[in-house]
C-alpha cells in the first residue's frame, strides 16, 4: 500500500515544518544564536550518494540517500520524493498593497520534500527537506532527532539534536482543569447519560474524521522571506498536512489552502492575545469562509504575547464564527509544530492535560499547558475528542475532502482520496472489510459507484432527496443527496440576523442564540437567564466572575450598555454544571434574586465559555459581538422574505431562498418540493416508485373499487336481470318464497280444476335472514307429459 512506514504508529513527524527552508535566512540568524537553542547537539556533514554518480548533484532526483554521522555511528537515510504534493489547481491567496485579493496558482510540480526511513532501523521514519541543506525529523529507536543546516557554514555543516534537548521559553496556557468543556456556542438541549456515552465512545475513534485546515501567515512573518518568490515560499509548507500525530486518533488533517498577508495585515495584531484571536475569527468569517471551504484556520504570527504560545476556541472546529486559532512562532521547528497541534487540538474539543490522569507514553503530552515539542496526544485528549463528537460538535469532520482541494503528500493507503484515486481504504488489513475499494489500486471495485461519503451506502449513491445532514436547530437547514454524488452539499443555515424564538432572538451561524438556552447548556434544563440587574451589577466588577473580556492589565469592566454581553448570569439553578467538571461557581444575591455565574478555569489560551455567546440579542435591534452590544445592522441581514422568497421560504447563509415544502427554488414562486439551490434536491427526480404507484392506484385499484361499489349497491337489480336471463334460457330455478326477514321453504303440489292448473305451497320451518328481501312470486313449475 504505497509507503507503509508513514502509517506506522511511531511516525510522529513534525506537524508543521512550515518554515522549513527559510529559517536560515532570518535576520537574527547566527551560529551562536542558533546553537543556543539546544542544550546538547552534534555537528555533522551529511554525505549524499545515489545509484548512479551522475545523479548525485541532481536537484530533482526522485530517490536520494544520505549518510549522517551522529550518536556515535553512521546512519544511512533513504528518501523518496513526495510526488504530487499539490494538485495542479492548488490556490494561494495573496494581497496587493491596496488590500485587493490576488489569486495565484504557482507551479508546484517540482519540489524538494522527501520522506523515508533509516536503513536497518525497524520502524524508523524520516520527513526531510533538501531544498537548502537538510531540514527535518528522524524518528528511530523510540527517540526523535532534528537536523538543520548550521548558519554561516561554508562546508555543508549541520546540527543534529534530540528534540527534547531544545531550549525554549516556558509557555503556559493557563490554570489547570480536569476535563473538557463543550463549545460555548452550542446549546445541547439533550445530554447523553453516562451509560449511553460509554457505549458509544469507543466507536468514535473507529470512524475516520477529516479536518480541512487553512493556514494564514501574517505580514511580519512573510517579510522574513523577501528574498524568495511565491512558489519558493509556498514550498515552506509541504509537511503541514503530515500531522501523523493525529493518526492515532483516526484524524486526518488536510491543508486545503494558504492565505499569505504579503502587503499588510488586514487586522490589527495589537492588544491581548484574546483580542487578536477575536479579530482573526471575525475576519475569517467575513473573508475566508466564503472564499474557501475549510473546518479550521490557524494564523501564524511572528509576534509573541509574553508567555502565551497561542490561543484557540474549544470544540469549534465546525463553527463559521469561531473555528480558528492563533499561533506565536519562533525559529525552532519542533516547538512551533507542537504549538499548532496544541491550538488545533483545542478546536477539536481537547483541553489541557494538567492535573488529570492522562498518559501518552512520554513525559509531556501535546495538550499539556506548558508543552513545546511534544508529539503525542494523551488518553485524555482522545476522551475529549470523543465527547465533542458525541455532542454533535464535529459534524463537518465526516465530510471527506475532495481530491482537488487537498494539499498533502499523497500515496495509496493513507485513507485520503488523492488526485488520481477513486477511493482509499487504508492498509491491506483495513481494506479487508471494505466492499467497495480495491486496496492495491485505490480504485472502485466492479459495480461500485462510490466508497465513501454521507451519500454513499453499500457502494451505491443514495437516492436524490435523502437527508445527509439534518437540521439540528431552528436556525439550521437540512441538506440532501443529489443522487449522483457521494458527497453531501456544503452546510448552509438561515441567514445571520433572521429572527428566531418568536422574535426574541437572532439566528447566528446556525444557532438560535438566546440567554435561556445558554443557561440550560451550563446549569441544566431548569435554568434560565437572570434579570438584567444581575448582568449590570456583576459585570461592572471587572473580575473573573464579572467582566467584558480580558485586557493586558487584567479583566475589563463592562460599561452599562454592554453588561448583557459580558459574563452570563442565570437563575433557577438547581444542579451543578451539566459537563461534570469542577469550575468555580459564584452566587450573587441582588435585590432578592440569586444570580449565578461560573468560571471554568480553562487558561489564558482558551476563551471563556461562561461569557454570553456572540450573536445573542441584547436589546431591541441589538446584538452581542466581541463583548459589545451593537446595532443588529452589523449582521447585514438583508432578506426581504415577501419580495425575494414570495413569503414561502427564508434566506440561507448564501443569501438564497430556502423554500417551504410545496414551493420550488430559487424564489419559491412556483409549486415544488422545497429546499434551495444550495441544499440539494428534497425529492428524487429519478425515483419512479411514487409515479408508478399512482399509476397503479388510478388505473387498476381505483377502477376495481368503483366496480365493487357498483355491484354492491345494484346487487338486487343485477340479481333480477340474471334470473330473467336464466329463465329465458330454459333454466329451472328453485322456488323460493320470501317475506321480509323470514324465508319460508314451501312444499309444492298441483291440482287441475276446470282445466286450470293451480299450484299450492305449504310453509315449513321458517328460516330468518339478516336482510329484507322483496317478496317475489314463485314461478310455476314446468310440467312434462304424464
UniProtKB/TrEMBL annotation:
Domain called Peptidase M12B: residue spans: 209-401
SMART domains: ACR (SM00608), DISIN (SM00050)
UniProt main location, coarse: membrane
InterPro entries per record: ADAM_Cys-rich (IPR006586), Disintegrin_CS (IPR018358), Disintegrin_dom (IPR001762), Disintegrin_dom_sf (IPR036436), EGF (IPR000742), MetalloPept_cat_dom_sf (IPR024079), Peptidase_M12B (IPR001590), Peptidase_M12B_N (IPR002870)
Disordered: region residues: 176-199
Annotated Basic and acidic residues bias: 185-198
Residue numbers annotated as active site: 343
Keywords annotated in UniProt: Disulfide bond, EGF-like domain, Membrane, Metal-binding, Signal, Transmembrane, Transmembrane helix, Zinc
Disulfide partners: 360-365, 468-488, 659-668
UniProt: Zn(2+) binding residues: 342, 346, 352
Gene3D superfamilies, A to Z: Collagenase (Catalytic Domain) (3.40.390.10), Disintegrin domain (4.10.70.10)
Domain Disintegrin: 409-496
Domain annotation EGF-like: ranges: 635-669
GO cellular component terms attached to this protein's record: plasma membrane
Gene Ontology terms for molecular function: metal ion binding; metalloendopeptidase activity
Single GO biological process annotation from the record: proteolysis
Membrane disposition: Single-pass type I membrane protein
Compartment(s) of residence: Membrane
UniProt xrefs under SUPFAM superfamilies: Blood coagulation inhibitor (disintegrin), Metalloproteases ('zincins'), catalytic domain
Ranges annotated as spanning the membrane: 694-713
Entries under PANTHER family matching the protein: ADAM A DISINTEGRIN AND METALLOPROTEASE DOMAIN (PTHR11905), DISINTEGRIN AND METALLOPROTEINASE DOMAIN-CONTAINING PROTEIN 9 (PTHR11905:SF136)
Protein name: Disintegrin and metalloproteinase domain-containing protein 9
Classification of source organism: Eukaryota, Metazoa, Chordata, Craniata, Vertebrata
Encoding gene (name): ADAM9
Amino acid at each position: 500500500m504505497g509507503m507503509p512506514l508513514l502509517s506506522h504508529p511511531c511516525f510522529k513527524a513534525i506537524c508543521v515544518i512550515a518554515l522549513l527552508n527559510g529559517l536560515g535566512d532570518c535576520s537574527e540568524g547566527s551560529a551562536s544564536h542558533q546553537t543556543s537553542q539546544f542544550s546538547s547537539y552534534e555537528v555533522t556533514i551529511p554525505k549524499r550518494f545515489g545509484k548512479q554518480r551522475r545523479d548525485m548533484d541532481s536537484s530533482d532526483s526522485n530517490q536520494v540517500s544520505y549518510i549522517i554521522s551522529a550518536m556515535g555511528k553512521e546512519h544511512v537515510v533513504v528518501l523518496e520524493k513526495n510526488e504530487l504534493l499539490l494538485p495542479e489547481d492548488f490556490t494561494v491567496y495573496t494581497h496587493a498593497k491596496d488590500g485587493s485579493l490576488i489569486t495565484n496558482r504557482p507551479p508546484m510540480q517540482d519540489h524538494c520534500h522527501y520522506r523515508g526511513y533509516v536503513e536497518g532501523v525497524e520502524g524508523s521514519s524520516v520527513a526531510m527537506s533538501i531544498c537548502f541543506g537538510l531540514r527535518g525529523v528522524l524518528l528511530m529507536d523510540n527517540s526523535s532527532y532534528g537536523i538543520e543546516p548550521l548558519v554561516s557554514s561554508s562546508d555543508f555543516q549541520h546540527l543534529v539534536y534530540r528534540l527534547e534537548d531544545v531550549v525554549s521559553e516556558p509557555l503556559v496556557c493557563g490554570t489547570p482543569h480536569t476535563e473538557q468543556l463543550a463549545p460555548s456556542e452550542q446549546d445541547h438541549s439533550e445530554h447523553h447519560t453516562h451509560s449511553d456515552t460509554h457505549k458509544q465512545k469507543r466507536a468514535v475513534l473507529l470512524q475516520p474524521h477529516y479536518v480541512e485546515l487553512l493556514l494564514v501567515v501574517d505580514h511580519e512573518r512573510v517579510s522574513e522571506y523577501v528574498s524568495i518568490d511565491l512558489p519558493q515560499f509556498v514550498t515552506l509548507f509541504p509537511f503541514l498536512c503530515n500531522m501523523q500525530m493525529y493518526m492515532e486518533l483516526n484524524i486526518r488533517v488536510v491543508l486545503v489552502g494558504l492565505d499569505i498577508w504579503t502587503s499588510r495585515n488586514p487586522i490589527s495584531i495589537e492588544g491581548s492575545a484574546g483580542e487578536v484571536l477575536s479579530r482573526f475569527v471575525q475576519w475569517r468569517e467575513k473573508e475566508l469562509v466564503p472564499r474557501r471551504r475549510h473546518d479550521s484556520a490557524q494564523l501564524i504570527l511572528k509576534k509573541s504575547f509574553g508567555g502565551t504560545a497561542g490561543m484557540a476556541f474549544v470544540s469549534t472546529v465546525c463553527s463559521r464564527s469561531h473555528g480558528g486559532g492563533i499561533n506565536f512562532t519562533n525559529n525552532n521547528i519542533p516547538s512551533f509544530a507542537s504549538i499548532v497541534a496544541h491550538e488545533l487540538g483545542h478546536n477539536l474539543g481537547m483541553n489541557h492535560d494538567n492535573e488529570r490522569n492522562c498518559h501518552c507514553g512520554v513525559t509531556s503530552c501535546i495538550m499539556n499547558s506548558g508543552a513545546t515539542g511534544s508529539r503525542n496526544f494523551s488518553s485524555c485528549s482522545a476522551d475529549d475528542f470523543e465527547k465533542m463528537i458525541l455532542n454533535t460538535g464535529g459534524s463537518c469532520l465526516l465530510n471527506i475532502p475532495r481530491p482537488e482541494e487537498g494539499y498533502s503528500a499523497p500515496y495509496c493507503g493513507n485513507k485520503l482520496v488523492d488526485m488520481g484515486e477513486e477511493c482509499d481504504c487504508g492498509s491491506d488489513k483495513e481494506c479487508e472489510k471494505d466492499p467497495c475499494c480495491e486496496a492495491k489500486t485505490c480504485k472502485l471495485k466492479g459495480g461500485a459507484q462510490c466508497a465513501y461519503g454521507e451519500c454513499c451506502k453499500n457502494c451505491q449513491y443514495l437516492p436524490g432527496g435523502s437527508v445527509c445532514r439534518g437540521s439540528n436547530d431552528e436556525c439550521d437547514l437540512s441538506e440532501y443527496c443529489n443522487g449522483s454524488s457521494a458527497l453531501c452539499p456544503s452546510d448552509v443555515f438561515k441567514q445571520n440576523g433572521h429572527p428566531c424564538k418568536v422574535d426574541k432572538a437572532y439566528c447566528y451561524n446556525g444557532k438560535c442564540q438566546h440567554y435561556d438556552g445558554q443557561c440550560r447548556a451550563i446549569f441544566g434544563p431548569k435554568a434560565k437567564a437572570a434579570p438584567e440587574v444581575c448582568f449590570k451589577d456583576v459585570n461592572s466588577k471587572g473580575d473573573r466572575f464579572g467582566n467584558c473580556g480580558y485586557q493586558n492589565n487584567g479583566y475589563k469592566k463592562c460599561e452599562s450598555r454592554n453588561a448583557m454581553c459580558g459574563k452570563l448570569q442565570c437563575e433557577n439553578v438547581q444542579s451543578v454544571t451539566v459537563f461534570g467538571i469542577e469550575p468555580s461557581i459564584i452566587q450573587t444575591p441582588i435585590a432578592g434574586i440569586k444570580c449565578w455565574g461560573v468560571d471554568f478555569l480553562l487558561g489564558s489560551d482558551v476563551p471563556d465559555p461562561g461569557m454570553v455567546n456572540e450573536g445573542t440579542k441584547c436589546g431591541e435591534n441589538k446584538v452581542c459581538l466581541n463583548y459589545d452590544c451593537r446595532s443588529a445592522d452589523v449582521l447585514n441581514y438583508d432578506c426581504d422574505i415577501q419580495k425575494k422568497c414570495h413569503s414561502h421560504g427564508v434566506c440561507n447563509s448564501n443569501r438564497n431562498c430556502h423554500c417551504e415544502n410545496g414551493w420550488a427554488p430559487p424564489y419559491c414562486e412556483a409549486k415544488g418540493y422545497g429546499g434551495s439551490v444550495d441544499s440539494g434536491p428534497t425529492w428524487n427526480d429519478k425515483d419512479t416508485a411514487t409515479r408508478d404507484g399512482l399509476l397503479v392506484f388510478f388505473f387498476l385499484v381505483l377502477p376495481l373499487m368503483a366496480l365493487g361499489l357498483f355491484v354492491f349497491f345494484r346487487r338486487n337489480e343485477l340479481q333480477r336481470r340474471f334470473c330473467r336471463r336464466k329463465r329465458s334460457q330454459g333454466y329451472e330455478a328453485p322456488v323460493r318464497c320470501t317475506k321480509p326477514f323470514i324465508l319460508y321453504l314451501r312444499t309444492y303440489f298441483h291440482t287441475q280444476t276446470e282445466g286450470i292448473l293451480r299450484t299450492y305451497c305449504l310453509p315449513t320451518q321458517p328460516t330468518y335472514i339478516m336482510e329484507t328481501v322483496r317478496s317475489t312470486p314463485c314461478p310455476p313449475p314446468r310440467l312434462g307429459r304424464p
